[in-house]
Amino acid sequence: MDRRRDRRIPLARRLRREATFQERLIWNAIRQFDIAGFHPRRQAPVGPYIVDFTCHGLKLVIEIDGDHHGYGAQARNDQRRDADLRSRGYEIVRLSNQHIAESIDGAVETILAACHTRAGAIMPPTPDPSPPQAGGGESATSADAHANPRAKHKTTHTTRGS
């Protein structure tokens, strides 16, 4: 979809300008994360939705929920939305305004843990490019010591002057 014609963009911009206090707290914390593949976006389009925060590289969505999200029609809408986002490969982290107010550090730790989990799932650790060397990859000095067990390492001792 051409971004210039995407009707969600003006709404996303308005939502960024009108961010809640809790959204601003979380944004100020997560935009400083130094995690490979983590480039956060706020009030960003994902599929037909505008999510509070996302990292497309890690396929992670972070939603900050007000009091109305846990009840009735809103709860059902959130379940449908989460199912659709998961079908697109995204993991969703939902944090309540109350959780953020009571423990911003705990909320940030929850997000950080999800980022690290997703980073490991999306980008597995790079294998060691060098295969082990013949003889166990030992250095020349340790190989010499094994070849000549009587060879001793020279040590120097220093004493403090008076």
TrEMBL record:
<protein>
    <submittedName>
        <fullName>DNA methyltransferase</fullName>
    </submittedName>
</protein>
<keyword id="KW-0808">Transferase</keyword>
<dbReference type="InterPro" id="IPR011335">
    <property type="entry name" value="Restrct_endonuc-II-like"/>
</dbReference>
<dbReference type="GO" id="GO:0032259">
    <property type="term" value="P:methylation"/>
</dbReference>
<dbReference type="InterPro" id="IPR047216">
    <property type="entry name" value="Endonuclease_DUF559_bact"/>
</dbReference>
<dbReference type="Pfam" id="PF04480">
    <property type="entry name" value="DUF559"/>
</dbReference>
<dbReference type="GO" id="GO:0008168">
    <property type="term" value="F:methyltransferase activity"/>
</dbReference>
<dbReference type="InterPro" id="IPR007569">
    <property type="entry name" value="DUF559"/>
</dbReference>
<feature type="region of interest" description="Disordered">
    <location>
        <begin position="120"/>
        <end position="162"/>
    </location>
</feature>
<feature type="compositionally biased region" description="Basic residues">
    <location>
        <begin position="149"/>
        <end position="162"/>
    </location>
</feature>
<feature type="domain" description="DUF559">
    <location>
        <begin position="11"/>
        <end position="115"/>
    </location>
</feature>
<keyword id="KW-0489">Methyltransferase</keyword>
